[in-house]
TrEMBL record:
Residues the entry annotates as binding Zn(2+): C118, C137
Family as reported in the entry's similarity comment: Belongs to the sirtuin family. Class III subfamily.
Binding site residues for NAD(+): 11-30, 92-95, 177-179, 203-205, 221
Protein's name in the database: NAD-dependent protein deacylase
UniProt catalytic activity: N(6)-succinyl-L-lysyl-[protein] + NAD(+) + H2O = 2''-O-succinyl-ADP-D-ribose + nicotinamide + L-lysyl-[protein]; N(6)-acetyl-L-lysyl-[protein] + NAD(+) + H2O = 2''-O-acetyl-ADP-D-ribose + nicotinamide + L-lysyl-[protein]
CDD domains: SIRT5_Af1_CobB
Keywords: Acyltransferase, Cytoplasm, Metal-binding, NAD, Transferase, Zinc
Compartment annotation: Cytoplasm
Active-site residues (renumbered): H110
Domain notes: 2 residues (Tyr-55 and Arg-58) present in a large hydrophobic pocket are probably involved in substrate specificity. They are important for desuccinylation activity, but dispensable for deacetylation activity.
Species per Swiss-Prot/TrEMBL record: Fluctibacter corallii
EC class name: transferase
Cofactor note: Binds 1 zinc ion per subunit.
Length: 237
């Protein structure tokens, strides 16, 4: 079957084999921290130093030379390059491995590690260094105004209108490496079904939302994704 507009939702599982830990596969801890201690606006008010340090470490880790896109990221970039229609990646990941692999159309609905946001102006800027309470933003040049450009729990995800529009216009929706437990991303599959979009889950194992997908293929992303994309590209020739 040929598909024209493809929307791909990715989660932490696609980056696991690049050396970045997932959120829910480690006793509920993210790099040894409880999510509510580092990834909420309340945590930032309570203990900004801990939150700055946590994201400074994540940002530094992402820029280490051994953290590279794996075969799954590369397969999605190849799909975008070779597919005649549109390919939109909607990622919950804050890493930049899709971009490093060569993907162009990527919506970071939960923000980005290599970006910082001014809490006064709301403007984001590319950021590769550490942030602390003395760092100045380039928009108003005031100290203590920058925060990690991450959508924390309790905050509104980004690009929701664009994502809904892309899903409504899609004919194929693929979900890769996400547990389907965090909304609104967990609801995209039912949004896709509502618009009669064909839905496919690619994950290490079937998730709790497996029943909502038309098809599912299971195993490590670096094996399952290239295989699925290869077949998809072959079918569309
Ligand atoms: N290949 C494919 N899938 C994998 C792999 C792998 N190598 N390793 C793990 N997985 C799967 C797991 O089985 C799990 O279903 O990836 C999924 C990861 O799920 P989560 O850790 O819950 O990550 P994610 O779904 O991206 O979390 C959503 O929650 O904490 C917040 O904002 C954070 O964006 C994140 C959101």
């Amino acid at each position: 079957m040929n598909y024209e507009n493809i929307v791909i939702l990715t989660g932490a599982g696609i980056s696991a084999e690049s050396g970045l830990k997932t959120f829910r596969d480690n006793d509920g801890l993210w790099e040894n921290h409880r999510v509510e201690d580092v990834a909420t606006p309340e945590a930032f008010i309570r203990n900004p130093r801990l939150v700055y340090t946590f994201y400074n470490q994540r940002r530094a880790q992402l820029q280490m030379s051994d953290v590279k896109p794996n075969l799954a990221h590369l397969a999605l970039a190849k799909l975008e390059a070779e597919h005649a229609g549109n390919v939109t990646i909607v990622t919950q990941n804050v890493d930049n491995l899709h971009e490093q692999a060569g993907s162009k159309q990527v919506l970071h609905m939960h923000g980005e590690l290599l970006s910082a946001r001014c809490t006064r102006s709301g403007k984001s800027e590319v950021w590769t260094n550490e942030i602390d309470n003395t760092t100045r933003c380039s928009c108003c040049n005031s100290p203590s105004s920058l925060r990690p450009d991450i959508v924390w729990f309790g905050e509104m995800p980004l690009y929701l209108d664009e994502i809904s529009e892309a899903i409504a216009n899609a004919d194929l929706f693929i979900s890769i490496g996400t547990s389907g437990t965090v909304y609104p991303a967990a609801g995209f599959v039912s949004e896709a079904k509502f618009h009669n979009v064909h839905t496919v889950e690619l994950n290490l194992e079937p998730t709790g939302t497996r029943g909502q997908f038309d098809e599912g293929y299971y195993g490590p992303a670096s094996a399952v994704v290239p295989h699925y994309i290869h077949d998809l590209l072959k079918e569309s020739i």
